Amino acid sequence: MNIVVLVKQVPDMEKVKFDSERGVVDRKSAGTEINPFDLNALEAAVQIGEKIDSTITAVSMGPPSAKDALKECIARGATRGVLVSDIKFGGSDTRATSTILSSTIEKIGAYDLIIAGEKTVDGDTGQVGPEIAEFLNIPHGSYISKIQEISESEIKVCSEIWEGTYLKSIKLPALITVTKDINVPRLPSFKNKMKARKAEIEVMTFKDLEENLGADKVGLKGSPTKVKKIEVPQTAKREGKIYRENIPQAVEKLVDIFEEKKVVD
Ligand SMILES: Cc1cc2nc3c(=O)[nH]c(=O)nc-3n(C[C@H](O)[C@H](O)[C@H](O)COP(=O)(O)OP(=O)(O)OC[C@H]3O[C@@H](n4cnc5c(N)ncnc54)[C@H](O)[C@@H]3O)c2cc1C
């Protein structure tokens, strides 16, 4: 079975800064990691591979540094990594991103199952998976929290939405997006770490996809979404004080603070 796993390298959201003037995320302001939901997607693929002989191709669209994320995918059980990267792709919104990723998947060749995370922790739209399925004209199931059964031609999956649990049977080829409840991602094994160290990440550029992808479909030109403004909510600064002696006086001070902050009358 040919499985494609979609993986996005995201900034560490605890540390990243926003450029409010340009309306963009300053991706250089923090370290990066694999989007956590994509680790669940990869683990789902590796577990399928343990039942049905599979090739697992991890695909990422991003800057050259995303090669590190793909190497980590190999260390966690992927067979190969493909990076799609080009200066022309800069400024792509979810529609352009999905267009580029679906062209990449078509270029890679035959696929039976595509697995994506339910969303990313930076963009957080949850649009890319379903959009790719629409562009490829294949069925998709979102928010999958369990794979009940899989064969060469069909996958049976559960999704929990609101109060209900839905059991869906989807004909392959198909795309699913998975939640964090589907599994606990395994850590890289020593053997796979060694394999990852030697692995060559394949790189595709606009030129490789050009026959199916016009320049007007990628980057800012291919992006109907325009960011008008970006605002960072102010976070309240925490203050701390420790009283070690004279507890009755400390309690009095505490009550004064509560009254001042209108926590008590
Ligand atoms: C006008 C505009 C300009 C933008 N310009 C830039 C820019 O210059 N540079 C930039 O980095 N971002 C840019 N973005 C953000 C970019 O569009 C999103 O990061 C991208 O479309 C993914 O959306 P998301 O993070 O909401 O993914 P979601 O839809 O929440 O992701 C769902 C799943 O899809 C898969 N997926 C998503 N993105 C990728 C990817 N890149 N590679 C592989 N799999 C993926 C993952 O499995 C993920 O879990 C821009 C956005 C807008 C609106």
Automatic annotation (TrEMBL):
Superkingdom of the organism of origin: Bacteria
Domain Electron transfer flavoprotein alpha/beta-subunit N-terminal: 22-213
Xref: Gene3D superfamilies: HUPs
UniProt-listed SUPFAM superfamilies: Adenine nucleotide alpha hydrolases-like
Database matches in InterPro entries: ETF_a/b_N, ETF_b, ETF_beta_N, Rossmann-like_a/b/a_fold
Coiled-coil annotated residue ranges, if any: none
PANTHER family noted in UniProt: ELECTRON TRANSFER FLAVOPROTEIN BETA-SUBUNIT, PROTEIN FIXA
Identification of the protein by name: Electron transfer flavoprotein small subunit
